[in-house]
Amino acid sequence: MSALVGVAPLARVTLRQDARSIAPWIVGTTALSASSILAYDLLFDDPQERAGLAATLGSNPALGLVFGPARDLLTADGFNAWRAGALGGFLAALMAVTTVVRNSRADEDSGQAELLASGVVGRAARLQTALGLAWLASLVLGVVSWAVTVAVGGGVVDTAVQAATYTGAGLVFAGVAAVAAQLGADARSATSLAVGTLAVAFLARGFVDASGTATWLTWVTPLGWLQETRPAAGNRWWPLLPALALALALAVLAFVLQSRRDFGQGVVAARPGPARAGAVASVWGLALRLHRAQLVVWLGGLAALGAVFGAVVSSVAGDGADSPFSALLPGGGSSVVAAFVLTFLSLLGIVAAVPGVQIAQRVHAEETDHRVEPLLAGALRRSRFFASHAVPALAAPAVAVLLAGATMGAVVSSAGTGLGAGDVLAQAAATVPAVWAVVALALAVVGARPAVRLAGWLGVVASFALTLFGPTFRLPGWALGISPFHHVPDVTAASPGWTGLVVVGAAAAALTVVAFVGFGRRDVG
To answer: For residue 191, which of 175, 179, 180, 203 has the smallest C-alpha distance?
Structure first.
């Protein structure tokens, strides 16, 4: 029997089942691109305003780290390429990773793959179906994004090049996910490998763009290759070719690895558990064991990210108090360096909130997998079980922010910027209550109303958007205040305003109480 027998019927069923999971990625990325055209024409209709926007955004390394180089901010298509290009590719890559792992390795973990294997389905059919679905989703994303963006005023060719980068990112990281699905011991480790690879690629691309180092380093990461298409600033198609070649090579490697590994096992085998339960015998040890791997990865990644941000801050320290960035950055603190530290630590806080939200979401995953009822059937109280997850969800981001602040402070102080390591660490400590507010929101929705648990990510998305775009788009103070990070004061200022941060801390405490009360009263599962 051919290894690809059964691909067609399996693909049809998988497409029907997975369409709802893929659609939000397509809608979100398309909205990001189309809204860039609409927002630019609405907010910056005057040529002088556009020139001012180009001067401030184009020279801000904090934004370049996330969005890439601003090559042309005098046109709507150039603004769209800057605002939605790198983030759109990142979202397309995430879509491809989740699609491939969910429809390949996750089926082996759940036992569904064994049922499929009992029929007339070849060994490689599931992987081909997962890859084909991710490829199709990436292609549809590119086409829909292009059509909608052109419909609202985007240039036909400029938008086509940008939409092609979305498709290219999806194809490449579909291959990365396919390889990770063969290497990982289970679906969770495969996802971690693929997402970790994506994060490293995105960070490497951002560091090159923000620090102004040798441009040839752009070619170290496939996201840099796609960036070199230069939408609305040259429209070069040829950088898509190495991305397509890499996608095909990774797909071939994934099929080779799958043919040589055992069903249900990864090339990197999972270590056997200890003979005795040890610390895992307690609910606290069990929760820590469940989250240990991701916490180690996040702590290490944020420490490295703090050092990267510190290097970027040091690169602009020589501009002094008259820097053109001063009006753009929030806080109005004692110096431009302090303002950059405040901004970067807010970004680090938003990133650090992600593992906290993931841990909160894991509570519901444990419920749906029917692993909570056996625990609660004994003498374990609901409040203690929930606390075993809530405490790491709140503590881990706090430790991550402080660790990132320590590494950033070491780099900033050693560069002679006039800001000491202790000042940066104190600023990191002031950021922690804002991080807790975001995580507490996720705990509250999972604890009280898990049906709307995706709202837990709203705090992360809203904080990110308001922190980076709020001052640029001149949003009113009440809108900026929605983000808890807006209330973090500059601790180096003569008179830091602590009132807003106290309110944010009180809100975090109240949301945590709602989480515990809600979990104690609702039905489990």
So the answer is: 180
For 9, 53, 235, the CA distances from 163, given in Å and listed in that order, are: 30, 24, 12
- Whether residue 42 lies inside any domain: the answer is yes
Cβ atoms within 10 Å of 355's Cβ, excluding its own: 23
| Separation CA 238–CA 229 (nearest Å) | 7
Which of 213, 241, 268 is the endpoint of a domain? 268
Residue type (1 letter), 175: G
C-alpha neighbours within 13 Å on the C-beta side of residue 235: 11
Question: Contact at 8 Å (CB) between 175 and 249?
Answer: yes
CB-neighbour burial class of residue 13 (10 A; exposed 0-12, middle 13-18, buried 19+): exposed
The label of the residue with tokens 């680090």 reads 348
Phi, then psi, of 475 in degrees rounded to 5 = -70, 150
Which residue from 324, 381, 330 is spatially nearest to 485, judged by alpha carbons? 330
**Shared domain check, 432 and 356:** yes
Domain shared by 374 and 246, yes or no:
no
Within 10 angstroms of residue 34's Cβ, the number of other Cβ atoms is 22
Determine the Cα–Cα distance for residues 88 and 170; give it in Å rounded to an integer.
10
CA 361, CA 392: separation in Å to the nearest integer? 13
Same domain for 479 and 515, yes or no, is: yes
Let me know whether 325 and 366 are in one domain.
Answer: yes
d(CA 510, CA 186): 37
Mind listing the pLDDT tens digit of every residue in the chain (525 residues)?
555 676 777 778 778 888 888 888 898 899 888 888 887 777 777 777 777 666 666 555 556 667 777 777 788 888 888 888 888 999 999 999 999 998 887 767 666 666 666 666 667 788 888 899 999 999 999 999 999 999 998 899 999 999 999 999 999 999 999 999 888 877 778 888 888 888 888 877 877 776 666 666 677 888 888 888 989 888 989 999 999 999 999 999 998 988 887 766 666 666 666 666 566 667 788 888 888 877 888 888 888 888 877 877 776 655 444 444 444 444 444 567 787 788 888 888 998 998 899 898 888 888 877 787 887 777 788 888 888 889 999 999 999 999 999 999 888 888 777 778 888 899 999 999 999 999 999 999 998 888 888 888 888 888 887 887 776 666 788 888 888 998 888 888 878 888 889 999 999 999 999 999 988 888 777
User: Domain ends where: 245, 268, 291?
Assistant: 268
Per the CB < 8 A criterion, the answer to whether 470 and 479 are in contact is: yes
- Whole-number Å distance between alpha carbons of 150 and 161: 12
Cα separation, 42 vs 476, whole angstroms: 16
d(CA 367, CA 423): 43
Q: What is the C-alpha R_g of the chain?
A: 24
| Count of positions (residues) in the chain | 525
How many structural domains are present in the chain? Answer: 2
DSSP codes joined into one string, 135-183: HHHHHHHHHHHHHHHHHTT--HHHHHHHHHHHHHHHHHHHHHHHHHHHH
Which two structure tokens, joined as six digits, stand for 483?
A: 């983000």
* Residue whose structure tokens are 């996802």: 191
